Amino acid sequence: MSSAADRDNDEPKRRGRRRNGADTKSALLTAAREVFAEQGYESATVRTIAGRAGVDPAMVNHWFGGKEGLFLAAMRIPVNPADLVPELLDGPPEELAERILRRFVSVWDGAGGGQFAALVRSVAGNEIAVSMLRDFVRNVLFNRLLQELGSDRPDLRVALCATQVVGLGMARYVIHLEPLASADVDTIVSSIAPNLQRYLTGDLGEVTFA
Amino acid sequence: MSSAADRDNDEPKRRGRRRNGADTKSALLTAAREVFAEQGYESATVRTIAGRAGVDPAMVNHWFGGKEGLFLAAMRIPVNPADLVPELLDGPPEELAERILRRFVSVWDGAGGGQFAALVRSVAGNEIAVSMLRDFVRNVLFNRLLQELGSDRPDLRVALCATQVVGLGMARYVIHLEPLASADVDTIVSSIAPNLQRYLTGDLGEVTFA
């Protein structure tokens, strides 16, 4: 992570012109998309991205709170999954699916559905973006949730949860499939939460439903 | 639909050069993607598409069996959903989800997973492609299945089924999320079929699972 000390580092002074905040943020986002795509999330450094953007590395902390926040902004993800974990775990485990669905819908509805479609576009065309997003969401969100719950077969549960949550996003925000596209969150919860809850804590074996 | 009679129609003779079969198919697919995107599935005619491609309209029947087949090929959908309905309905209703999942995985695994990602890319960036695909799949596949089953709330069931099936495709073919990306079909069926079956024939109300 960069710090204010980076202002006095040995990087060459970049293009002389001053930028305002909007310019700086925009330049950092563009550079971040390029550098993350080229190098992956782990290898990309704040200094490299700031260098590409022609701005001081300290601006990454200033505007995005660090590399993780810059990544989320660059991928247009409107919430930090890490911030969600405590909130999602605050309640009965048998209602976790309902809490996940309410939060998912409020985050993406709030961001405007077009942002989910933009994320899908960027991911579907880009194996590196796919792998970054996959590792990030799995490690930061679902694995932590499942550890807290102590579930068996966590990898399979994570993947199954992803099918349902991503599929809901596709139906609501990309395919615009009615009645889900304009359903209120209570309809979504009552119809989908039981399925998602089975993936989180239910029996994954030879379960049969009438 | 065009027919052999179209060979003798009043369209002007197009570019004089002869094409071989591969050229003709390729020109028709390119023209179809353009014309379907411009005019939508219903308005686009075989004659317009053939005209754009500079080939005889009869070639659409010859190579694709008609407009529906040309649409599926243009969208890179490796199977005609209409052909699946009798097969999917041949068996106990309570095992319909299992049959859908087995067929979905065999079709897209067989086509090479990249084709699903290509479909998602083309759809996520194109509202017209979304609307064509949405109407086509809903009308041709799921509505017909649910009519046969006589289910209540068919629109909601269709949309819910889509969340699960599309979400599985995203996890397996786009995000490559293990263990689902390389799971055998039996694992997919035992873990996902109960959820899909609830969407098809189960109680969508205030169902709760332990």
Protein traits:
homodimer, 210 residues, Tetracycline Repressor, domain 2, Arc Repressor Mutant, subunit A, mainly alpha, 2 domains, disordered N terminus, globular
Description:
Chains A, B: Keywords: DNA-binding. Chains A, B: Residues 1-13 have a biased composition (Basic and acidic residues). With 210 residues, chain A is mainly α. In chain A, α1 packs antiparallel against α2 and α9 (154-174) runs antiparallel to α10 (185-201). Chain A folds into 2 domains: 4-74, Homeodomain-like (Arc Repressor Mutant, subunit A); 81-201, Tetracycline Repressor, domain 2, CATH 1.10.357.10. Chain A is built from 10 helices and no strands. At the A-B interface, α7, α8, α9 and α10 of A face α7, α8, α9 and α10 of B.
Give a quick summary of the entry.
By secondary structure, chain A is mostly helical. The first copy, chain A, has helices at 21-43, 46-53, 58-64, 67-74, 81-89, 96-111, 114-124, 127-149, 154-174, 185-201. Chains A, B: InterPro entries: Homeodomain-like_sf, HTH-type_TetR-like_transc_reg, HTH_TetR, Tet_transcr_reg_TetR-rel_C_sf, TetR_C_16.
